[in-house]
Amino acid sequence: MAINKTKVAASFNRSAQDYANHAVLQRTVAERLLERLELVNISPKMIIDVGSGPGGAARQLAKMYKGAQVLQLDLSMEMLRQSRSQDSRFFSKQQYICGDAESLPLGRDTAELVFSSLMLQWCNDLDAAFTQMQNTLKKQGLFLFATLGPDTLKELRSSWAEVDDELHVNTFIDMHDVGDALLRAGFVEPVMDVEHISLTYEDCFSLMKDLKTLGASNADDNRSRGLTGKNKIKDLESAYEKYRTGGRLPATYEVVYGHAWAPLQATPPDSLANEAYFPISSLKIRD
């Protein structure tokens, strides 16, 4: 699969104005990521939100870590503009930069925390993205993220498979492959877990409209370039009906959560499986 970044940016540019009104899943996942930070004892001075979108999580991060600079980085300029419009014009701790996670326009050892919620699924080269983030983090810096796993939109993918052999739904990386990529990039002590979240819709059209509004269209370069005819849409709607429960159609999202640490010192790739450095003092202990 090859993600067309130009198409992704254009899609999110179009959806930026209405994005926050429809982003139920995105808000839910970001909130759960932020809750995980409550278990970690860190005091970052610089935070980078990679794939910041309309900036909701970035503003929450600024509230959690008073005095920290928060850099919002996104592929979509319109998303950044939308976020900037909600920020104070004076004495703001928020900064904005349009850029790609696979080629971060940032220096080494820049931040103590890199945060990324539901962005990694738009990367073509996860190893490159992780290497960029590891280089950007200071020693013992924290990388906290969420992305989508292969069960995402399984109902839609299965229904389309009954209609034709074209690729209509993006494919997503398995949790274990994400963990392996973290190690290859030089991160230590990766921790991964997964959650399935189901949203429900009145009909298939409502789901497709929601996906389009959120900019989550199929950005695979191998997708069919032809228009999808009315007959195919009707066939899709008919195939999707078998999933209807309680009068609603479900859409499943497999959410992969993870965190890992930049090492205390450079670690040779061949020793990653046997040796790691982890800041015990960074863990909070609950009574």
Quick summary:
With 287 residues, this protein is of the alpha/beta class. 34% of the residues lie in helices and 22% in strands.
Any overview of this molecule?
This protein has nine helices and seven strands. It has a domain at 5-149 and 170-196 and 255-275: 3-Layer(aba) Sandwich (Rossmann fold), CATH 3.40.50.150. The chain starts with a helix and ends in a 26-residue tail after the last strand. The chain has 287 residues and is of the alpha/beta class. It has helices at 5-22, 24-36, 56-64, 77-84, 126-136, 154-161, 175-184, 204-213, 230-240, and strands spanning 46-50, 69-74, 94-98, 111-117, 137-148, 188-201, 249-261. A seven-stranded mixed sheet has the order 3-2-1-4-5-7-6, sandwiched between helices. α6 (154-161) crosses α9 (230-240).
